[in-house]
Amino acid sequence: MIAAFTRAQADAAHKLALIKVVANKGPKAIQVAVETAAKAAKRRDSFAKKLKALGVVLNEGVG
Questions:
Q1: Residue 49 CB coordination number (10 Å)
Q2: 3: exposed, middle or buried (C-beta count within 10 Å: 0-12, 13-18, 19+)?
Q3: Which of 10, 24, 27, 51 is the 20 to 30 Å CA partner of 18?
């Protein structure tokens, strides 16, 4: 589960970076990138919540 969180954390960071990449492609591309990044962040936060409930301490600065 920790590995899944780490992957979700990296995926969320990657999706946030994609917003900058598509900034010149127009509003529709930006909107899709923002929605995708939000889903990835929600998934990351879900894993973090589950791990916290299990008593696992996460180092949020990594990734």
A1: 10
A2: exposed
A3: 51
- The residue range of the domain holding 22 is 2-53
- Look at residue 62 and tell me if it is in a domain: no
Residue 63 lies in a domain: no
In a domain, 58, yes or no: no
- pTM for the whole thing? 0.79
pLDDT, one tens digit per residue, over 8-40 is 999 999 999 999 999 999 999 999 999 999 999
How far CA 52 is from CA of 9, 45, 55, 57, in Å, comes to 15, 10, 5, 7
Q: Which amino acid is at 34?
A: V
How many domains does the chain contain in total? 1
Contact at 8 Å (CB) between 58 and 46? Answer: no
